[in-house]
Amino acid sequence: MTEKQTWSQRFESALHPAIARFNASISFDIELIEYDITGSQAHAKMLAHTGIITHLEGEALCNGLEQVRQEYHQGQFRPGIDAEDVHFAVEKRLTEIVGDVGKKLHTARSRNDQVGTDTRLYLRDQIQQIRQQLRDFQGVLLDIAEKNVETLIPGYTHLQRAQPVSLAHHLLAYFQMAQRDWERLEDVYSRVNISPLGCGALAGTTFPIDRHYTASLLHFDNVYANSLDGVSDRDFAIEFLCAASIIMVHLSRLSEEVILWASEEFRFVTLKDSCATGSSIMPQKKNPDVPELVRGKTGRVFGHLQAMLVIMKGLPLAYNKDLQEDKEGIFDSVNTVKACLEAMTILLQEGLEFRYQRLATAVTEDFSNATDVADYLAARGVPFREAYNIVGKVVKTSIAGGKLLKDLQIEEWQQIHPAFASDIYEAITPRQVVAARNSYGGTGFEQVRQALVNARIQINI
Ligand code: ARG
């Protein structure tokens, strides 16, 4: 198809080759080819169903499109830059296969409603794949959590030791984030799954089309109520990119923790050889490349969200070619999120070994049981703020004396406050400190066990 043929007789000369390259999207929108063919088949069926073309013609178009699909799968059909975009490429190949009837396919349709349809069909599939990956990721988090209800790990605020927690509780925090991601994508899906097909270029069409018919063939839940909105809306893309960005936030936070945990300073985990890399110069190194890459890749997904927002902000109705810029960001975000979810799931499943001995000592070597001493007094009638001040002083003198709270003698405790009795020692063991936080959603073992049961039910595996 030369440019002259493409653009009607209005044009006298072909595009400048550099401008043709600049204009073309085929190098990336070829990703949509399956959806373009499926969308076109639905359109052809509708044209026949409504009598706009004959049933024979409709059948010829559908079969021809199926052949284009096969040729693409078998590697025989590889459209080049002259096709401009995937929509022209498919239509041109179809017409070569079926002859003049191929030229009827674009009746009552525009590339504007076509590309919107294709992008939605693509995202629909990808969203479901990502949701399944989130489920797998949650499943692995749960598997590890179930084995580690009674494994204690220092809990932090401000990255300072705060209170010990159950390792399962810590992992379940990421489970909850992934659960919101899964639900958020379900919500995004409901707005992705609306058909713009039949909106035409911008104003609808003079033909007696049936938009609900194509929508139901393509399993859309609904159709856009306004044609101008239908062809130019990219809210669904912004929403998807936002949901993708939030997934990346969560993966990046987990990555950061794994990187810290694997450091010599923390030593909470060892990276297994299958998921770690070495240094080209320092033979002793074992690097956490996987979580570092996930943390790093987060930036590009945020970037695509920002780009999409900026693409949209000044657009007058309806379609503008600016919208061609939506695709690469969507594709790259989809690929990035999928790759990162896969890598993090593998890393959790087989790349991390918790260092139990080290974790057990880590929770005993600090003052993270100080709140429990204050709670001990408060439970015995001392107003909490007063108890807090008393324990603050005890911590200060203990640090000066090179002692931990567990090292204080009973006489010392009783000098601090007469309410202290010998059960203070049990109250401040890391195990008891964790067990005692039995408030709903807390790290107490009872709560965590219940949370694990609920989580299993939630993901239903
Ligand atoms: N390649 C175009 C895109 O991705 C298809 C729609 C072109 N529409 C047009 N009016 N030029 O947006």
From TrEMBL:
Presence of the UniProt keyword rRNA processing in the record: no
CDD domains documented for this protein? Argininosuccinate_lyase
Secretion signal: which residues? none
Q: What is its main location?
A: cytoplasm
Q: Which InterPro entries match?
A: Arg_succ_lyase_C, Argininosuccinate_lyase, Fumarase/histidase_N, Fumarate_lyase_CS, Fumarate_lyase_fam, Fumarate_lyase_N, L-Aspartase-like
Q: Which residues form the Argininosuccinate lyase C-terminal domain?
A: 367-435
Q: Name one GO molecular function term.
A: argininosuccinate lyase activity
One Pfam family of this chain: ASL_C2
Every Fumarate lyase N-terminal domain range: 10-303
The enzyme class is lyase
Reaction(s) this enzyme catalyzes, per UniProt? 2-(N(omega)-L-arginino)succinate = fumarate + L-arginine
**Keywords, sorted A to Z:** Amino-acid biosynthesis, Arginine biosynthesis, Cytoplasm, Lyase
Q: Where in the cell is it found?
A: Cytoplasm
Q: What is its EC number?
A: 4.3.2.1
- Which pathway is recorded for this entry? Amino-acid biosynthesis; L-arginine biosynthesis; L-arginine from L-ornithine and carbamoyl phosphate: step 3/3
Q: Do you know which Gene3D superfamilies this protein is assigned to?
A: Fumarase/aspartase (C-terminal domain), Fumarase/aspartase (Central domain), Fumarase/aspartase (N-terminal domain)
Alphabetical list of PROSITE patterns matching this protein: FUMARATE_LYASES
Record-linked NCBIfam families = argH
The similarity comment for this entry is: Belongs to the lyase 1 family. Argininosuccinate lyase subfamily.
- Xref: PANTHER family: ARGININOSUCCINATE LYASE
What is the protein name stated in its UniProt record? Argininosuccinate lyase
User: From what organism does this protein derive?
Assistant: Aphanizomenon flos-aquae FACHB-1249
The protein's gene is named: argH
